[in-house]
Amino acid sequence: CDTLDKARSFLSSCSGPVSLHNFVGGKYIAPHGSSAKSSQLNSFEPKTGRLIYTLPCTQPDAVEEAINNAKSAFPSWSRTTRAERSATLRRVSELLQQNRELFAVWESTDQGKTLERARVEVDRAVSNFSYFSTFILHEQTAARMIDGVALTYEHRSPAGVFALISPWNMPLYLLTWKIAPCLAFGCTAVAKPSEVTSMTAFLLGGIFQKAGVPPGVINIIFGDGATTGAALVASPLINGVSFTGGTQTGIAIRRLAAHQIGKHLSLELGGKNPTLVFADSMEPSVRERTIRVAAMAAFENQGEICLCGSRIYVEKSAYSDFVREFTAYVKEKYIVGQTVGAVASIQHYDKIRRYLELAVEQKATFHLGSAPPTLHEDGTQGYWIEPTILTDVAKDSAIQIDEIFGAVVTITPFDNEEEGIQLANDSEYGLAAILLTTDGARMRRVGEQLEAGLVWVNCWLVRELGTPFGGMKNSGTGREGGEHSRDVFTVVRTLHLPA
Ligand code: NAD
């Protein structure tokens, strides 16, 4: 496939699995060198369990070839004007918008999410490109005079060639959240999506061709983390890594990059986020909102969003009402196969299933859901798990501590504000927190004590793309979004000129 149109007709004409090719130097290229000899990876449709495509496990020599393409493209791309880069990104955003349905259908097929959810994420991917296409036009640098002796100002330049690595939960949205600012700020890149969900990244190559992004500016390669991802991150030609994924992988990436002190690292990692429900938020006038926000935060995208609130803490006086009404609401609104999709892979299905078996063993109370059966390796039924609501789970249970990353929530009572904050912060992670209360003073008082990079009060997942996005503690380092993305993708020198 060398254009998006061909990709589209190719995909629709295939009755069997499709074979994805890397997009390097502006072209789709068949695996060659040692990548041709190594075995391909398989990707399965979560809703049915059938094999839908294969992808190369790109080997280090082919990774290097992609990096060299990005490196060769860097000098001229980094010298383009902001207006030129802005126009290119705008074309990307328009083309993506025009192909919304193609991307949404594939995202839903590949990841397991509902089509409705996939459409929202394609729209957000479109916004990633349109936002950064205009952001760079409005950047300003302030100059300062030092005692009439020297004039000083910050001069920024693109930081170089980046490795952009993303996970499987929101494949297109999270990859474009990296590609858009990377290209906007004048860097070039080799992007690697998750081996579990590579299809929309494959289709993106066609969009970049059509939009006239010069060859080599953005290269997209496929493969697993241990071979392809590690070779990419460790390359001395890579000037920076923007990574979103699990905390253990973040630690491995830090190690791989440790010998290059100047390598920019932006690590957006895992979470085990608390939802803190105060009794005032269960008053009749706001009750519906409280239940709706807590449920959405728990179960959107099958709980496969790093920002999901999976540990719910409820003030004791409202606890039993909350458990009852939350359960009834989820039962009515979150229906497997309709508003709840399939989980992304059989490996992830097994991981969630093990936690639910542990819940049975530990005699937790299941208000909704149950431990699902073991699937056969061919997974022909698809990977479906009912939303699960648990109470009576001990504080030190792995169910309360580990990031399950599925539609499993625990509900625990707390006595007072101090204990609520203490329970919410009792985690190695610090990505997001949801606070449900009507007390204005408490919103600030508690909100400012929560150890989380993002705190939502009476709402969830509301985002403005300029706000800092990222986590505290083991949830990551660095922030992305607006000027924070600029810090990731540029280097700064401070110039001092005689007055
Ligand atoms: P993962 O860490 O297993 O994989 C993420 C990506 O890293 C994949 O592309 C994978 O191939 C690659 N990778 C794996 N090992 C590597 C290595 N040694 N070197 C380089 N690359 C390597 O994560 P996942 O299972 O795909 O995604 C789920 C995780 O992502 C969860 O922990 C979730 O919280 C997190 N996540 C975080 C955010 C955020 O913004 N903080 C957003 C979405 C998902």
UniProtKB/TrEMBL annotation:
InterPro entries: Ald_DH/histidinol_DH (IPR016161), Ald_DH_C (IPR016163), Ald_DH_CS_CYS (IPR016160), Ald_DH_CS_GLU (IPR029510), Ald_DH_N (IPR016162), Aldehyde_DH_dom (IPR015590)
Keywords: NAD, Oxidoreductase
Family: Belongs to the aldehyde dehydrogenase family.
An example molecular function term from Gene Ontology annotations: oxidoreductase activity, acting on the aldehyde or oxo group of donors, NAD or NADP as acceptor
Keyword Amino-acid biosynthesis: no
Protein name as catalogued: Aldehyde dehydrogenase
Domain Aldehyde dehydrogenase intervals: 37-494
Database matches in Pfam families: Aldedh
Location of the active site: E268
